[in-house]
Design goal:
Blueprint (H helix, E strand, L loop, with lengths): L13 E2 L5 E8 L2 E7 L2 E6 L9 E7 L3 E2 L4 H5 L13 E11 L4 E10 L2 E14 L2 E11 L16 E14 L1
Antiparallel strand pairs: 1-11, 2-3, 2-11, 3-6, 4-5, 5-7, 7-8, 8-9, 9-10, 10-11
């Protein structure tokens, strides 16, 4: 339920916040729910000529969660869910990049949420956009691996364990 990316091509680039987004999708009582994070930072050092030398770090402000029903925004910040008072950020730090062919990479790294760090691997696409790049991908996670939804909320018949984090990060030099 969280995460972000930014990638830098040869020289440091910034994120175009108007074109970048981090969303997540989960099922509540079998109905898909889409939400987003309004605040995140990302630094990416993308090497077009040697993609395996590329690195990325993304930090998501969990307090910026925006669910379709605003009354739930405060609920998911509580200890049973994100425990945002103690763990205000979700962080992805890459440990490897692998070229999958034209415009595609496989990112490997550590995803830390709520004090738990797990190695994740996922594909992403890279396209030139203006003078920068557009990085897009989807990272599937299991919320219970990060203790998101404790106590009675461990019951996956109410809120499914599967969560898809969808990101789009557009850089500008």
């Amino acid at each position: 339920m969280l995460m972000s990316f930014c990638i830098v091509a040869a020289t440091p680039a910034g994120i175009d916040n108007t074109k970048s987004s981090i969303n997540f999708v989960f099922k509540q009582m079998e109905v898909p729910v889409q939400a987003k994070f309004k605040k995140f930072q990302a630094s990416i050092d993308y090497n077009q000529n040697k993609p395996e030398a590329s690195t990325a770090k993304v930090e998501i402000d969990l307090n910026s969660v925006d669910l379709p029903a605003p009354e739930y925004n405060q609920e998911v910040l509580k200890k049973e869910w994100f425990n945002a008072a103690q763990f205000p950020k979700a962080i992805f730090t890459s440990t490897g990049m692998k070229s999958l062919g034209a415009g595609k990479l496989e990112a490997t790294g550590n995803l830390s949420i709520k004090g738990k760090s797990i190695v994740v691997k996922f594909p992403l696409t890279i396209k030139p956009e203006g003078k920068g790049f557009n990085f897009e991908g989807t990272l599937p996670i299991k919320r219970l691996q990060f203790n998101i939804g404790e106590g009675e909320w461990k019951d996956t018949s109410m809120v499914a364990d599967d969560v898809l984090i969808k990101f789009k990060v557009v850089t500008n030099p």
